[in-house]
Structure formats: C-alpha cells, structure tokens
Amino acid sequence: MSVPDDRPAIRARGLTRRFGALTAVDRLDLEVRRGEVYGFLGPNGSGKSTTIRMLCGLLLPSAGDIEVLGRRIPQQAEALKRSVGYMTQKFALYDDLSVGENPLFVASVHDLPRAAAHARVETLLARYWLTDLRRQLAGTLSGGQKQRLALAAAVLHEPALLFLDEPTSAVDPQSRREFWDSLFELADAGTTLLVSTHYMDEAERCHRLAILDRGRLVADGSPRALMDGLPGQTFLVECAAPRAAQQALAGAPGVLATAQIGASLRVLAQGSAADAAALRHALAASGIGARVEPTPPNLEDVFVAATQRPRHADGAAA
C-alpha cells in the first residue's frame, strides 16, 4: 500500500500507555512528516522507548489512535512489518554469527529471495565499511562496528520508516558522527526516521524534535524554532569564583538552572531574574563581582526549561 506524499508517516492522537498505576505515556499527540528526521529527547523514564514500541506495534496502547504509513496500529501491525525497521541501543545481533551471516539471517526472516538478499547484503557491507570484516564474529566487534552492522540489518529490507531507540549510547563520538552521516543518507533517499537520543548535539541535527517529560509532550518543533521561542533569557556569568556564583544563584527566584562551563557560568532565568542587572545584584549580595551578559540560547536551555520540575518551599526539585 503506497502512502500519498502529503500524508504523515506517523500520526498519533491521545496515545496513552499505563503499567498498573504508572502512566508511562500520557495522551501524546504526534505527527511525523514523510522523509524527515524526527527526534525524541527526554530524561530517562520520559516514555520515549514505550512510545516507539507502540508505534511499531510491539506494545498495545492503553488508549489513543495510531496511524503509521497509512495503516492503523495495532490492528494492521502485521501488514506494516515489511515497511518499517527498528534498531535498539543494545544492537540486536547474533554474536555467534559472522558479520556477513547476521544480515543474511535477517533477510531470511523477511523472506527475501536468496539472490536478492546476497546482493543487498554485499551492498550494505560496502556502504557501512564492513566488507573486510565479513568473516569476523559479530560478538568480537567494537561498539562502532556493531552499530554499523545493526543499521545494515535494520535497513536490509529497505523500510520506508526506521525507528532508532538511542542507537548511539554505546559508541564513541567519531562513530556517532559517522552514524549520523549514514542516517542523513537514508533520509535523502526518502526514508523517514524517528530517533530517540540523550545527546543535545544529535537532537540539534534533527529536522524536528519532540521533548518528552513524564510521558507528556512538552515541546515540539525544529531545534531552531524551539531555541528562538525559549521563554526567559540565558546569560553568561564571568567571575573569579564561578562555583561560588553558582551556589549563590541556586534556588534564587526566577533562576531555572545554572551550569559551570569551564571558568564561566551559564544561567537560565525567567521573570524578574531575566535581567543582567538583577543577576549582578544577586551575586553582589553574596560578595561576588561578576560580568553578566546575555548569550544566545542552546538546545540544552530549551530542554531544561521544558522539563523543569516544580520546587518545594525549601528549593528542592519535586
């Protein structure tokens, strides 16, 4: 079944999943356009993996409606299998099979004709720099090599939609960079990608981004739009004692977050504190002289603002 270009690859309305008394996903509305790289960003336990498993048809929702590539989920999940790929952070490989045997086994699961499967595997081994490792057992590979092999297996059947659940959590920065180059190559060829990540630099690479917190969608848009729409203001504080400045501002009214960056302090503020003079005054009250200047927001600022926990009277996060 082909999907018109103007129909979203993924549409979910009121998507909810409960585990007993715990609501892991809470009335989530989601729309992913075809051919885009859509990111999921959120703390541990925010519902990213649970949402992906429901969208794949691997987990039944407690409530809500899902449509993926024009098919209703979970009712038509079986028919969807040939059109989607799924890659987890644990790299679902068979350690006792070789690099070449792993994707061939996946091809047999998808009932691909033998000749076509061998040709496709050869193409993918070359594309992901694995040809010279074809006889090596998958269990002996490095993290980056396992990642590339898992991606090759996930796209073997040329899915129109690829789900990736924190696929770079166990690899080095260079492998992450190369992996994202591969993802954009897939997107350029028309594949829709939904990627969950913990890394801000990866989230910034996405065309659009959803920030989840405690099962709810708290922000949605392009990284640039989210940064431009950040409520409040970010500041860079330069002083002789950034650690003391951080302690002086911790829990101050209107100060959402502080983070030491080298010898400077980054401050996210709102309300009456979103003013350089107000911050300088607060620091001076603790005997700290500082230079305070506005600085452009980054995605981490957006994340902190969107997932900010309410505070108790003693200043501790709820």
UniProtKB/TrEMBL annotation:
UniProtKB keywords: ATP-binding, Nucleotide-binding
> A GO molecular-function term, please?
ATP binding
| Annotated ABC transporter domain residues | 10-239
| Entries under SMART domains matching the protein | AAA
Query: Pfam families annotated for this entry?
Result: ABC_tran (PF00005)
Q: Which InterPro entries match?
A: AAA+_ATPase, ABC_transporter-like_ATP-bd, ABC_transporter-like_CS, P-loop_NTPase
Q: Tell me which PANTHER family the record gives.
A: ABC TRANSPORTER G FAMILY MEMBER 20 ISOFORM X1, ATP-BINDING CASSETTE, SUB-FAMILY H, MEMBER 1
Instruction: Return the protein name.
Output: ABC transporter-like protein
Please give the organism. Mizugakiibacter sediminis
